[in-house]
Amino acid sequence: MNTRKTLLGSALVLYFVIAFEVLIMISPFAGLFYSVFNPVLLKLASNSVTRWLSAFYLPHMVLPQDDFLKFVRVMGSVLFLVGMTVFVVCAGQIYFAKFTKKGAVIGGLYSFIRHPQYLALGVAGLGLSILWPRFLTIVLWLIMTLIYYVLAKDEERRMLKAHEMAYRAYMGKTGMFLPRGLERFLIPTSN
Predict the structure, then answer these.
(1) Segments in the chain forming alpha helices (H)
(2) Under 8 Å between Cβ of 66 and 91
(3) Which of 96, 105, 110, 138 is 20 to 30 A from 47 (CA-CA)?
(4) What is the pTM of this model?
């Protein structure tokens, strides 16, 4: 089975699930959904340990009154904007190198991290899951993160096959998703 086709198919299914969830929430079916979901929310709200879940992860947009949750929402916006900005900058580096035939990009953020675009999309996705607080977005963010990890490993395998010595040296001085020193500190066995 072709890994690329499998990942593309998985991504399309995830996007369909997201779109389907939005359609459900704006349809008359939402009334039934809320009537079934409301007892769960009330149960969560009645317990002091889980009260924050019903105050934040609701099936609709939330504007919290608590100062801490307001701060968390602002941080969600910051994470989303920073992630998307870094993604666009890195995409610019890649496409500039591609159009000018300069070869592999190893400057800028790529001099510290081998996959800054995947990291940026993960950060933006985390920000979105805070801005659009639903359990579905958290689950999809976790799945997206796993898919990006698999894609990064596949890219590294292909780069090692095409440019073994140069890419192995590059891998030795850069981290996969974090700067090398931080990655070694957090995950002692990382490549």
Answers:
(1) 3-25, 29-46, 51-56, 67-99, 116-131, 135-162, 164-173, 180-186
(2) no
(3) 138
(4) 0.67
